[in-house]
Design brief:
With 202 residues, the chain is α+β, with helices and mostly antiparallel strands. It contains 6 helices and 12 strands. The strands form 4 sheets. The chain has a 6-stranded mixed sheet with strand order 3-6-7-8-9-10, with helices on both faces. Strands 1-2 form a two-stranded antiparallel ribbon. A two-stranded antiparallel sheet has the order 4-5. The longest helix has 20 residues. The protein starts with a helix and ends with a helix.
């Protein structure tokens, strides 16, 4: 990165409030693609390049989930499924973003889809997060709380080390699914089931 580019990214990171234009430019800068905004501040700046890398296992699980869920959603015209580089603003407006994140996989029901070339200013109906080092479970639970406060109906937490998927709800305890079990789509994805083995043994 040149001195001019370094000055530019530092100016963008220091600017307040954080607007959609600023956030989009920051996220388009190599090395800053995985930052999030919490309480109007950038988080993730202290991570090194290795920590910011998605990794093969995580990327493959994300791809499988997009294919398995996305194929069903498209076939039954239920809405849209998005990969992990789509930005959702859970709190804020284009001129002042307070909470922004990029779930690894997200589903928005048809009635809630608003096509746009920019950020999506609403919570996904279903957010899927894949935990991989150096992420911690406790940090992810804080993020799950943010999803639910913003209107998300379910959060699926994928734990590759345990080969397990936790389905979280806003009003009851999470349900845990392991290989040999199936995750029901329920009212969110009517008629859909996901075999846990398809995620970890494909």
């Amino acid at each position: 990165m040149t001195a001019r580019e370094t000055t530019r990214i530092n100016d963008l990171l220091a600017a307040r409030p954080i607007t959609e234009a600023i956030a989009a430019e920051v996220l388009a800068t190599p090395g800053y693609e995985h930052l999030e905004i919490v309480n109007g501040e950038w988080v993730g700046l202290d991570k090194n390049e290795e920590e910011m890398t998605t990794g093969e296992e995580r990327g493959w699980i994300e791809a499988l989930l997009i294919v398995l869920i996305g194929g069903y959603v498209v076939k039954h015209k239920l809405g849209r499924v998005y990969p992990g580089d789509v930005t959702f603003v859970l709190d804020g407006q284009p001129g002042n973003i307070r909470r922004m994140c990029e779930p690894d996989v997200a589903f928005v029901a048809l009635e809630n889809v608003t096509p746009t070339q920019g950020f999506i200013f609403r919570a996904p109906d279903l957010a899927i997060e894949i935990i991989s080092p150096p992420q911690t479970y406790s940090a992810m639970t804080d993020k799950i709380d943010d999803y639910f406060r913003s209107g998300t109906q379910q959060v699926w937490l994928v734990l590759p080390d345990k080969k397990q998927v936790e389905v979280h709800f806003p009003d009851k305890k999470p349900e845990k699914y392991r290989i040999g079990q199936s995750i029901p789509g329920g009212d969110l994805l009517p008629g859909f089931t996901l075999e846990v083995a398809q995620v970890f043994e494909a």
